[in-house]
Amino acid sequence: MARIDDIPPVRADGLQLVENRAFQERFWRAQRLAWIAFGALMLAALLGLTGSGGPLHSRVLHFAGASVEMPRIARWEGNDEITVTLRDADTLVVGNEFFDGVGLQRIQPEPETVLQGDRQEMRFSGPGKVVLQIRPEHFGLVRFDLGIGGHSRPVRLLVLP
């Protein structure tokens, strides 16, 4: 610990400073790394990897006779949409694991019939677009099965806080 009586030497430029050059260089290096990390985080947000828009925010799943556009990453207690385009198929099957972590706010148009069991099976009146408005209730990884027209596949949705 420096005492008050310790007077630093006068530098060639006339300043009388106590400086630890090694510490200063380590600090500058840490500062540059922090700027790079912040820049990477900003780029990830602009690309949509933090939810709520961007080119990487959503993905399209193709089924025989239908396609599903859904978010890759959603925000906890934030509203989002899953859009199902039915061409040949008329049945949408969603595993019950989906409903454990995500609240279904609205289905437009409403299905003609809903069958329950270990999954939710919704029948619609034919080709067209179906919009499911969702709101994640828990953050984490939601794994569920999604099926259309007899074809099913596992799907993951990452919910960020």
Task: Explain what the structure shows.
It contains two helices and eleven strands, in the order H-E-E-E-E-E-H-E-E-E-E-E-E. It has a six-stranded mixed beta sheet. It starts with 20 loop residues before the first helix and ends with a strand. The model has no long low-confidence stretch (mean pLDDT 87).
Mean pLDDT: 87
- Give the helices and strands as they follow along the chain: HEEEEEHEEEEEE
Share of β-strand residues:
35-45%
Gap from first CA to last CA: 45 Å
Q: Strand sequence of the main sheet, in spatial order? A: 3-11-10-5-8-7
Number of strands: 11
The percent of residues in helical segments reads: 10-25%
Which CATH-level-2 architecture of the domain at 58-160? Sandwich
The CATH topology of the domain at 58-160 comes to Immunoglobulin-like
Classified by CATH, the class of the domain at 58-160 is Mainly Beta
CATH superfamily grouping of the domain at 58-160: Immunoglobulins
How many helical stretches?
2
Radius of gyration from CA coordinates: 27 Å
In terms of per-residue confidence, which ranges show pLDDT below 50 for 5 or more consecutive residues? none
Strand-pairing-aware structural class: alpha+beta
